Amino acid sequence: MTATQSSNEAFEREPVSLTERITADGSSRWPVEPGRYRLVVARACPWANRSVIVRRLLGLEPVLSMGIAGPLHDERSWRFHLDPDNRDPVLGVEYLGEAYRKADPGYDGGVTVPAVVEIASGKVATNGFQQLTLDLSTQWTAYHRDGAPDLYPEEHRAEIDEINQAVYEDVNNGVYKCGFAKGQASYDHAYRALFDRLDALSERLATRRFLVGDTITEADVRLWVTLVRFDAVYHGHFKCNRQKLAEMPVLWAYSRDLFQTPGFGDTIDFEQIKQHYYGVHTDINPSGIVPLGPDLRGWLTPHGREALGGRPFGNGTPPGPPPEAERVPPIS
């Protein structure tokens, strides 16, 4: 997703615009169908990262292809500058905005990732990032891999939804509220809300391996995509600097546990994350200099969270390795 805001002192994320759903029961004009759609993401973006992880865990790679926009974009939108000829090889577009305007020729809203594009028409079907991953879990079940985990178990949905809402307000979007605040009071409020929530989450996770139940759920996916970016960009670039993640023992161990779980760390490209935040947000970082740190080797150190029990995939199994074209550079 691209960070856009109102003219107010406090950061307010503009709502996404193309929020139709892709459904299995024919209740929308976009039916679930293998090979019909392409999921467009960017490695840099936490909101897109959620869909990459869920797609991996559920094994949807054979039925839902993935296009990867590069970390840099301009006023024309996310662009495919890492692909041959600077175009997505399936959609044939240079800028994601082209697919938005095919869906709506007069479109003037934010061009965000993730976006699901109908391949034949080249039109964005949805950019509803909050619903997308839930629909991958509940609408695409006919195409889940054998052993796919249940990331949105019915008996825990109310609890997952409650946690997700709090995490979204104070953590996922909270770091942006800090980074893009236009006044001290707004920044102070967002900063306190962020670290109050992180403290509460740390207390919750001190005695349980995962946020809800004893398995990985949608709640863990949504929290983790912010935590994994915390020290690389949010601590310094967004002034979220009370502590680094590596200085918060419970959350650091929890984050390493998931990083070392298939489907999580193998979706992360720290270099692209840094290139995006430090290279695109010129109002915050006008020099465009991308920092060399932090040292990433800590992500591979033992976390000890197995002692809390829990079954990461429930009755399921880990996903296999990602497709060759979707692999990220290993930490060395």
Account of the protein in words:
This protein has 332 residues and is of the alpha/beta class. It folds into 2 domains: 22-143, Glutaredoxin (3-Layer(aba) Sandwich), CATH 3.40.30; 154-316, Glutathione S-transferase Yfyf (Class Pi), Chain A, domain 2, CATH 1.20.1050.10. Helices cover 33% and strands 8% of the residues. It contains 10 helices and 8 strands. The strands form 3 sheets. The chain has a 4-stranded mixed β-sheet with strand order 4-3-7-8. The protein has a two-stranded parallel sheet with strand order 1-2. α4 packs antiparallel against α6. The protein is globular. The relative contact order is 0.14. The model has no long low-confidence stretch (mean pLDDT 94).
Compact summary:
The chain has 332 residues and is an alpha/beta fold. It contains 10 helices and 8 strands. Helix 1 (46-58) links the parallel strand 3 and strand 4.
